[in-house]
Automatic annotation (TrEMBL):
<dbReference type="GO" id="GO:0019856">
    <property type="term" value="P:pyrimidine nucleobase biosynthetic process"/>
</dbReference>
<feature type="domain" description="CTP synthase N-terminal">
    <location>
        <begin position="2"/>
        <end position="272"/>
    </location>
</feature>
<dbReference type="Pfam" id="PF06418">
    <property type="entry name" value="CTP_synth_N"/>
</dbReference>
<feature type="domain" description="Glutamine amidotransferase">
    <location>
        <begin position="309"/>
        <end position="543"/>
    </location>
</feature>
<comment type="pathway">
    <text>Pyrimidine metabolism; CTP biosynthesis via de novo pathway; CTP from UDP: step 2/2.</text>
</comment>
<dbReference type="GO" id="GO:0005524">
    <property type="term" value="F:ATP binding"/>
</dbReference>
<comment type="function">
    <text>Catalyzes the ATP-dependent amination of UTP to CTP with either L-glutamine or ammonia as the source of nitrogen.</text>
</comment>
<keyword id="KW-0665">Pyrimidine biosynthesis</keyword>
<keyword id="KW-0547">Nucleotide-binding</keyword>
<dbReference type="Pfam" id="PF00117">
    <property type="entry name" value="GATase"/>
</dbReference>
<dbReference type="GO" id="GO:0044210">
    <property type="term" value="P:'de novo' CTP biosynthetic process"/>
</dbReference>
<dbReference type="InterPro" id="IPR033828">
    <property type="entry name" value="GATase1_CTP_Synthase"/>
</dbReference>
<dbReference type="GO" id="GO:0003883">
    <property type="term" value="F:CTP synthase activity"/>
</dbReference>
<dbReference type="InterPro" id="IPR004468">
    <property type="entry name" value="CTP_synthase"/>
</dbReference>
<keyword id="KW-0436">Ligase</keyword>
<keyword id="KW-0067">ATP-binding</keyword>
<dbReference type="InterPro" id="IPR029062">
    <property type="entry name" value="Class_I_gatase-like"/>
</dbReference>
Amino acid sequence: MKYVLVTGGVVSGLGKGVTASSIGLLLKACGLRVTAIKIDPYLNTDAGTMSPFEHGEVFVLDDGGEVDLDLGNYERFMDIKLTRDNNITTGKIYQFVIDKERRGDYLGKTVQVVPHITDAIQEWIERVAHIPVDGKTGSADVCVIELGGTIGDIESMPFIQALGQFSYRVGAGNFCLVHVSLVPVLNVVGEQKTKPTQHSVRGLRGQGLTPHILACRSTTVLDENAKRKLSQFCLIQEENIVTLYDVPNIWHIPLLLRDQKAHEAIFKVLNLYGVVEPNLEEWTRRAEACDLLHEQVHIALVGKYTGLSDAYLSILKALVHASVDCHKKLFVDWISATNLEDATAKENPDAYKTAWKLLKGADGVLVPGGFGDRGVQGKILAAKYARENRIPYLGICLGMQIAVIEFARSVLGVHDANSTEFDPNAKNPVIIFMPEGSKTHMGGTMRLGSRRTFFQTKECKSAKLYGCKGFIEERHRHRYEVNPDLVACLENAGLSFTGKDETGKRMEIVEVPNHPYFIGVQFHPEFKSRPGKPSPLFLGFIAAACGKLDNMLQHPSSVESNGLSKAVGTGVVSAVKAHNKKTAMKPAYRPEYVYGSCNGYHY
């Protein structure tokens, strides 16, 4: 087993996760089998109880693991399925060691950070690295490890010590360290400054780790003078220093690494010879096609955490995947749900008017998952507007529950219909707490992971989008569900529950039949969306917002394939080829584009 460790220096948020994902994709494109591990030094056992404002979204895996959002990047880039053990936290390691101590496994020894914690970290890495994640049997060839945080953080020191020991444990030809660091450009002098990276590498060496490859984040390509300086002061060969400069979308990052021969540098360190050149033709076409899109589609995202785009990262990725396949340039109109409510009209009229203007100007409305009662009334108003004005609507988890509450209030006339999450004493609870849930413990007590949904009819839109299968498997994360006692009443009024669980009592998919696209799902389809293989529900949603859904449903093969080569169509592919012939230059880099972000949201 070969190991590639990715660390970060100077500041957080440099894009270590995207870099690690891109390295994994590049190695996979060379024919190697790749797995990934993310190390988060925080004390939480997992990300499940963390606020989206604190740490971005909680990504959910097939096995129900609630993990860091970077594992979502790994899955999307490398097209793999990870496990909860692929996310290591300080909380998990300490809990593991303390449990062993309580059982008496250490035979009376004094339990210390070194060697007991550091040994546990190394054993965890070695064990998880051999778990197959690509659907094949046997271990992967390479494990990409990302160490969260920044070099110098107190909480990451045990991991750095463990990884230093681990590099000697596996041997020099089996361990490669890629250090991602910042090379800022000061506006005053306009010069790329290498000193922060020099100090970062010095700090890394002082803790027992020596970088083999330096990945420098900068606004522009690293000039030769800066590269020479870094080589001299960091003791790294110039050919092992690569630049990760600002690009239109993050799909270009693997291409940057390939063009700068990063894979060859990694192979040299890992003693991997005779490996084929990376095949990234389809990935390149998709990245370039994305840059050339100009016809816009506006999606109103009505949520609670709109102040931080990372809180809805997987949803944004799924929207991008679907938009590219529909040949549209995505614009997300962020709407804080509270700004749609009547109270805001009195307290902040300008915010109220702006929110409603964005909602009414959108081609589609998406209400994502969330917790708590803040903004619920605004989400209900958004669902009502979409249903009554025949605007495509996609409700995910809470967004589905909101749609059911709105329907009960507006169509059935049950004006006090509510969820017991928002009102535990609701007289007409259309959404109730699941019997198997816990009201005293928050972590890991929801209905989590991959579950089957069985279609009740193959004539509904959702079934057609999934290729008329009998059932599907999607990932869940919820505590509340539609009240099964009210399902018949809701269906008699015109709502259709087209997907249910294996018992037939838990509602999974709801649709309004005579609407262009009004679908709510209890699961999270965004977690399984991939570049070139978008989630069917997101693809249908964007297609409906573009007025292309009927044509798509008439040609089910294009829905099932979901591949760029078939779904993007000859128009965009021809444009890419024409663009490549016309100029050999890189895509135009606009000032407003920042590494991994565009128009205010992250790709």
